[in-house]
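User: Show me a protein chain along with its predicted structure.
Assistant: Here is one chain, sequence first, then C-alpha cells.
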Amino acid sequence: MTCREVNEYLDRSSPSDQASLPQMLGKHLENCECCRGLWELLARRPCPRQVPQQVRSRIEHELLGSLEPVAPLPKTGRLALGFVLIFGGLSALFVGLLAAPEAPGVNSFPFFAVAVVASAVGLLLSLALSREMAPGEKRYVSPTAAHSSALLGLFAAVALVFPWRIDERFLAESWHCFRAGFLMSLPAAGLALLLLRRGAVLSPEAVGAGTGLLAGLVGVLSLHFSCTILTAPHIVLGHVMIPVAGVLIGYAAGRLMPVRWSAGSAAGPATPSETR
C-alpha cells in the first residue's frame, strides 16, 4: 500500500483502533513514520458533536424559506432580438417623427455611410449585450475593446465623409443637438434596463457601458435624419458625443450598483422543479 492510497483511505474513513485496520494498511503504518504520525493525529482528534435535531430543523427551515422561484434564462438569440427591437424600433419612431427630407445632402453617400455604420454598431452591440446576460457565454472581444472600437469607428466615419467646417453658431447648435439626442436616448436606456433584468448580469460596469452606448446610438440615428447641419465638427460634438456620454454614465452606474443587481431576475414564476 502506498502513501497516496493511505491518504485516499483517510479521506473516506475515520481513524479507528489499529486492531481493526486492514492488514495492508496496518503494515504500511508500521513501516511509514509519516503516515503513522498522520494517522495518530487524526485518531486523537475529538469526534464532532452531533447537531441537535431541533437546531437542524431550524436551519433547514431558514434555508428553504429563503429560496425563491426562478425561471430559466431566455435564449441568447431572443435577448439579442429584444435589444435589436429596442434600438431599431425607437430609432425608426424618432426618425419618422423628426426626419427632415429637405436637409442638404440627405441623399448623399456620406449621409448613408454614417447611418449604415451606426446601424451596424447597434446590431453588433445588441448581440454582445445579450451574451453578457448569460453566465458562461464566450466573449469574443472584451467590452472595453468593443466599446472603444465602436466609438472610434463612428468617429472615423464622420471625420472621413463630412466636411470640416465651423460656423459662428457652432457651439450653440451642437449643444442643442446633444441635448435633444440625449433626451431621445433615455427611453432606449430604460427599456434596455428592463430587458437586462431578465438575465444574470455578472459585470455591471461592462453592461452599463454597453447599454449607454446602445441608447446613445438611438440619439445619433434620430439626429442624423433630422439635423440639417452636415459638417464633421458639429456631428462629432453634437451627435457622436451622445453615445460617449452614455458609455461614461452607464459605466459609472454599473460601478455603483451591487454585483447581483439583476440576478434576482424578474422573469416571472417558475415551476417547483425550477427552484433553486
